[in-house]
Amino acid sequence: MADLTDPLAARREKLARLRAAGVDPYPPRFSRSHQAAEVLERFAELEEDASVRVAGRLQSLRPMGKTTFGHIEDASGRVQIYARRDQLGEKGYRLLKTIDLGDFLGVRGSVFRTRMGEISIRVEELVILAKSLRPMPVVKERDGERYDTFQDREARYRQRYLDLMLNPETRETFRQRSRTIAALRRLLDARGFLEVETPVLQLVYGGALARPFRTHHNALGLDLYLRIAEELPLKKLIVGGLERVYEIGRVFRNEGLDRHHNPEFTMLEFYWAYADYRDAMDLVEEMLRAVAREVCGGLEIAWGEHQIDLEPPFARRSMMELIREATGEQVLEQDAETLRATCRRLEAEMPPDASRGKLIEKIFDLAVAPALVQPTFVTDHPKLVSPLAKSHRDDPERLVERFELFVGGQELANAFSELNDPEEQRRRFEQQGALRAAGDEEAHPLDEDYLMALEHGMPPAAGVGIGVDRLVMLLTGAEAIRDVLLFPHMRPRTRGAAPAAPTDRGEA
RNA sequence: GCGCCAGUAGCUCAAUUGGCAGAGCAACUGACUCUUAAUCAGUAGGUUCGGGGUUCGAUUCCCUGCUGGCGCACCA
Questions:
Q1: What pLDDT, on the 0 to 100 scale, is given for residue A336?
Q2: Which of A193, A234, A259, A368 has the smallest number of CB atoms closer than 10 Å to its CB?
Q3: What is the pLDDT of residues A94-118, one digit of tens each?
Q4: Contact, A261 CB vs strand B, < 7 Å
Q5: A491 sits within 7 Å of strand B by its CB
Q6: Contacts for A38 with CB less than 8 Å, ≥ 6 apart
Q7: Predicted ipTM?
Q8: Largest Cα–Cα distance of chain A, in whole Å?
Q9: Rounded distance between C-alpha atoms, residue A76 and residue A125, angstroms
Q10: Which tens digits make up the pLDDT trace of A12-56?
Q11: Which chain A residues in 132-191 sit with Cβ < 7 A of strand B?
Q12: What would the DSSP string read from start to end of A442-479?
């Protein structure tokens, strides 16, 4: 005899009882006439009407002898069910004894309002649609107040399905994420951009300054990299004449993880022939406006204690000017030693091989970026850290035509007038090679295949990359990237030496 | 990778100076035909994260490992 105080054993025993009674605990389908929310919304026309058929997960159960109340929940919401023995019959009512919280049920019955005023379904037929064998955490609710909520962060990330079934705000966050991406796609489509897909597995990675993941192709006996950006293949499409292309895809960077970083994340990149980085700023402003309207219903967004205003136009400030205002330093004129000293003053010890460009970026990150709460385009970066950007029309020796959009102290977008001079591109790659030789593991590798494409001629073009996860964080007020990723990267769970399946509540 | 903090029943959390490991919810049994954190009576449930040490005695003190959270560093 199974120990019935063990919830797992108790549920398996009920499952066996159902099967013994000839009930299929996992029937193939159930046809619904209404969603839960519809029953509530259309109560006036449904009341005491024929029958509605609703299905969902059982979220609460209150048996009271010959009467039982409960709530079933579907994607639209939850509705109360009311079962009576005299209505269901002896046999039908006994089925309730084999039901647990978390089971999927289908009910048929009439809609009415209880004495306490809650719109409910008087159950005339009850069907088990899927027996649940593990107890889910129980969240109770009264007068809108929720008790014993499921808040353990680790469990929420590792078992997102529990988070989704128990926390409505989690469901809302991911709906907002989906709406954000849909809105971006709609806007680009409307502007004549073509959505494309480019390879994730690459022989030479590129398009950003970052360390890659490595993988291996067995049949070809070939080591490959997972892409760190979408950039280079997309620009080959510009060479090919597609003129306006974009990709929303996963990129992979082999770096540490924290509140703002996951090893794989979603990047939107678009490339726009015959436009420059200033045109791109206009379009990015419009994209943020469209997305904020769609997802937040307005252009004012709460961000911690601040209100962020996404009404265009955004501030456009040169990086060097911002650094000068914050530190008094004319960094563009200074040598590496002076820059390193400034870093030290800002409490960052930089590696001895760090280039001037990296040092300037660091100074910016420490002294300027955190204060950029309202949307700000930071423009005109040092050439050394921007190997794919076109030299600046006003200062071609030292600067490039580039912007990064900062909102809430975070970088949301990175863009430039694309470098389309193949000879200069080769020299920039070679310069990166020198940085790499000096120990910079993030320096951009030389890509002959890309250079060949450029030699065929690429029209002037603007290119933009937007960190979709961070955009969603901004729009949803999430403070960690994990809160906007359905399945954030987690260390594997191990028990002792042997790798084990993820632990689950109720596991012996 | 470094620093700080945490890990006790399925869940949320207690446990005095180092002295019998507890409560609520969930589970199980019973009562209850308009309840809603249903209520009432009862039952069961523990490798106190793993390993080692100190001690007559360790949830508690020490060492070590694992996992997580937060911060720093790197990156977007």
A1: 87
A2: A259
A3: 899 999 999 999 999 999 999 999 9
A4: yes
A5: yes
A6: A76
A7: 0.83
A8: 89
A9: 22
A10: 889 988 999 999 999 999 999 999 999 999 999 998 776 899 999
A11: 135, 137-138, 140-143, 147-148, 150-155, 157
A12: TSPPP-HHHHHHHHT----EEEEEEEHHHHHHHHHT-S
Considering the entire predicted model, what is its pTM?
A: 0.90
Confirm whether any atom of chain B, the nucleic acid strand, is less than 7 Å from CB of A5. yes
Express each pLDDT in A349-379 by its tens digit. Answer: 777 777 888 889 888 988 898 889 999 999 9
| CA of residue A60 to C1' of nucleotide B22, angstroms | 28
Domains and CATH numbers, chain A: 7-136 (2.40.50.140), 169-314+375-484 (3.30.930.10)
Q: Residue A169: in which H helix or E strand, if any? A: helix A168-190
Residue type, A366: L
Q: Which residues numbered 22-81 in chain A sit less than 7 A from strand B, measured from CB?
A: 60-67, 69, 71, 80
Asked if A200 and A212 touch (Cβ cutoff 8 Å), the reply is no
Protein-covered nucleotides of chain B (CB closer than 7 Å) are: 1, 10-12, 24-29, 31-38, 43-45, 50, 66-76
The identity of residue A77, as a single letter, is G
Give the helix/strand (H/E) hosting A274. none
